[in-house]
Write a structure and sequence with these properties.
Chains A, B: Phosphorylates (R)-pantoate to form (R)-4-phosphopantoate in the CoA biosynthesis pathway. The structure is a homodimer. Chain A contains nine helices and twelve strands. The first copy, chain A, has about 300 residues and is of the alpha+beta class. In chain A, a hairpin with a 2-residue loop joins strand 3 and strand 4. The longest helix of chain A has 18 residues. Chain A starts with a strand and ends in a 6-residue tail after the last strand. In chain A, about 50% of the residues are buried. At the A-B interface, helix 3 and strand 7 of A face helix 3 and strand 7 of B.
């Protein structure tokens, strides 16, 4: 049996971490954008005499210690008494660790594919398993619930899907420019002193956005958040300022990666492209906002 | 400016009403199915000197007293100081009052279209307005939040979108047969003594389904609920029994309408069609489950 799933990449514009001993209650407040590119997951399940679970990233098998979240998720949802071969192929449109929610995308795609195949758990029961292991292994706090909802989202209550609350902003005519520049481990930032400043600035950004829920406000408060927390600085800030010159809305930093994002309308695309060429930036993505729920379906077989 | 929205028809399989003085906390527990047919809404907005709001059902203008919910919703979301002509055209794939969530579909489609056009409220703020007027005018308790989520759904916590919780069951290969037979005003049933029996049987059905969340279980508990509450009886029950003869899952009654629904796979469609012909039932619908969120977009103009 072959299952295929798609989970959008999720970029965070600003956030407030909410830690909790119960991983289902832990999460984040904040806002972000789900992209039309992300993680494609292919799962093959064959019954057999022994239990084996294999995971591959972009076609290359990975060891258990390099895919702890997805292995934990798979082990929890696959029944204890199952024997057979399960292969989980995860393909990422963006690099790992750059702030695109790949670990959550892989975990959520894995658990939804297996839940679809096994039909023993509900959607929320499955999604909560992905959230739990993301939180326990510090992959992220809010990506899973944001990816479940899609769109340009505001997280107004922290927690796992079914516990937290995610809202959406209406928008029209915008594409997303994403420029992955480097890694910034979530874990490192969340364990540092910057967290207090993040909480203060994140709450301010959230209140401003909720009182005037427009994408223009989102980009303004996102940029303020990223500069005031000191996360957007140095070379990355210089690049953001260059991009600002050709777009009507401010660009900002992807939380948490050394990456920049911006919203642009159709007639700004060419200007953005030639600027990035001038800056010798070769890797960038222009995609749509993904406004639907993650997809999961049987693959390469009749639909019945 | 022209906006187009689609909200799926929502049929309830079983439910537990949860009344509350605060309409945002009122709602229902239960389970149901969102259909690929439903309500199409077209909204035209033109600024002008006077404020006029017009609503039409299936192309025919309706008076305020015949579309109280949609008029209330429109009046609440349109800013007090707006002047101009707003036309709201609602087209229903199913008849009104037969249990397909038309009033919620019209209200939700109206409010999402206007929120998309005005861009001053979030998705949940808008959807809560639809839920509130549905509850206040006894259109229904759980349709709006179910339609927001899509799919084959289980309502595990009552309330408006953003307050209640909706889960989904994974399924594969099923289409939905819907047979609208007559009206059954929600208001009449909710004001009667049957409510206590509905609560008892509804809770039992919900617990059974949550402990084994499969569509096969859903149809079994739905049928038990509809017979034990006495809602499915007489001629309607006879028709359900006839339909059962050609399908592998039990059919059941749509809450609340004099209507029948069933899940059928591809190779049961022809058998169902000829049976309905034998029974001289001319109006029936075979549709897909709608698994996405309601759509709303600018209509007949460039997307930018």
């Amino acid at each position: 049996m072959l299952i295929r799933a798609f989970v959008p990449a999720h970029i965070t514009a600003f956030f407030v971490p909410r830690f909790n001993e119960d991983p289902l209650l832990a999460g984040s407040l904040g806002a972000g954008i789900n992209l039309s590119k992300g993680t494609n997951i292919f799962v093959s399940i064959e019954e057999g005499l022994e239990r084996h679970i294999h995971i591959a990233f972009n076609g290359e098998p990975v060891k258990k210690e390099d895919a702890v979240i997805s292995y934990s998720v798979a082990n929890e949802i696959i029944p204890k008494d199952f024997t057979g071969e399960i292969e989980i192929w995860q393909y990422f449109d963006f690099p790992n660790g750059y702030g695109f929610g790949n670990s959550a995308g892989g975990a959520l795609g894995t658990v939804l594919s297996l839940a679809f195949a096994l039909k023993e758990k509900t959607f929320l029961q499955a999604a909560q398993i992905a959230h739990k292991h993301e939180v326990l292994h510090k992959g992220g706090l809010g990506d899973v619930i944001a990816q479940v909802h899609g769109g340009i989202e505001i997280r107004t209550k922290p927690g796992a899907p079914g516990i937290g609350v995610v809202d959406n902003i209406f928008f029209e005519g915008y594409k997303v420019l994403a420029v992955p520049m480097g890694r910034l481990p979530t874990r490192e930032v969340l364990d540092s002193d910057v967290v207090q400043l993040i909480e203060k600035e994140g709450e301010k950004a959230l209140n401003t956005l909720l009182s005037n829920p427009k994408v223009e406000v989102l980009m303004k408060v996102a940029r303020e958040f990223s500069e005031r927390t000191g996360l957007l600085s140095g070379e990355l800030l210089e690049i953001a300022k260059e991009i600002d010159k050709v777009l009507h809305l401010p660009s900002s930093m992807i939380m948490l990666g050394k990456s920049i994002f911006a919203l642009l309308n159709e007639n700004e695309i060419e200007k953005a492209k030639s600027l990035l060429e001038d800056l010798s930036i070769e890797e960038y993505h222009i995609c749509d906002v993904y406004t639907q729920r993650p997809s999961v379906e049987r693959w390469m077989e009749g639909k019945i």
